Amino acid sequence: MSKPVVVLNGPNLGRLGRREPQIYGTTTHADLAARLVEYGRGLGLDVEVRQTDSEERMIGWIHEAADERTPVVINPAAWSHYSIAIADALAQLEAPCIEVHISNIAAREELRHHSVVSAHVTGTITGLGLKGYEAALAWLATS
Ligand code: DQA
Hints:
DHquinase_II_sf; 5 helices
């Protein structure tokens, strides 16, 4: 039986492909989702990819993952830098959780250097583009 993993993408990531392509690339969110489902299948993972611009909805999804002990890959996008509510929700997870950033946040504007969620995740992958999500899935598959 394949292991469930949920990939949660935060605000503005639904606009991948059109949003600042010089930073985030030209792949759309739908294409990313299809690619991760396929990649996960090869690793024996049952991957579900979700995206929302609503903090309330994101917190609900994290609570669901906490209750079901589902491993999580999350790109909290801008919430990474200020949302104590998202950080508090992630602190409730018992299964592993990987924080992913497409861009190298340490090499960008100062306001992006700190992530308030990083202390509550298992590990963080930043700056590897969309391949960062695949690296997170590969790690989860062996954990
Ligand atoms: C991001 C980096 C954040 O600073 C930004 O707000 C995003 C995307 C990334 O994936 O590189 O929306 O999380």
